[in-house]
Amino acid sequence: MAHYESDITRFLRDLKTSKPHLESEQKKGRSLLWDKIVDRDLWAGFNKARVAQKPYVYAPEDKR
Questions:
Q1: What confidence score (pLDDT) does residue 1 get?
Q2: What is the Cα 27 distance to its own chain's centre?
Q3: Directed axis angle between helix 22-33 and helix 7-18, to 10°?
């Protein structure tokens, strides 16, 4: 019995074969935005200092 392989799977396999550096570039790009060390104490301080927003921020102006 033949193993089914979707068009997308074949495309990705062929793409990675033709551009072997692609995966390392993806990891490099991901590290710029997502792979960050999070200082949990600093974030806790930010959250404690947050001021609650009042409702109806965009109240209509006085009409005289």
A1: 66
A2: 13
A3: 100
- Runs of H (alpha helix) within 1-64: 7-18, 22-33, 40-49
Domain ranges of the chain: 24-50
**Cβ proximity of 16 and 23 under 8 Å:** yes
3-state secondary structure at position 31: helix
The type of residue at 50 is R
The whole-number pLDDT of residue 42 equals 95
pLDDT digits (tens, 9 = 90+) for 36-54: 888 999 999 999 999 988 7
- CB count in 10 Å sphere of residue 21: 9
Q: What is d(CA 27, CA 31) in angstroms, rounded to the nearest whole number?
A: 6
Residue among 9, 13, 33 at smallest CA distance from 22: 13
